[in-house]
Amino acid sequence: MTTDSVSAGDDPRRLLSEVRTLAHRVRLDQRLTWVALLVLAGVTFLGIPFDWFGMKVNCTPDGVCEFARRGVLYYWPLASLLAYTAIAVLYVRAARARGLGARVLPYSITGAVTTLLFTATWVAAALYFPSHPQRFPEWVLVFDRLIAPWGMIGVALLVLARLERNLALLAFTVVYLAVVLVPINFGWVDHSSTRAEFLPQQVINGGVLLLGAAGFRRWQR
Question: What is the pLDDT confidence band of residue 75, given thresholds at 50, 70 and 90?
Answer without folding.
Answer: very high
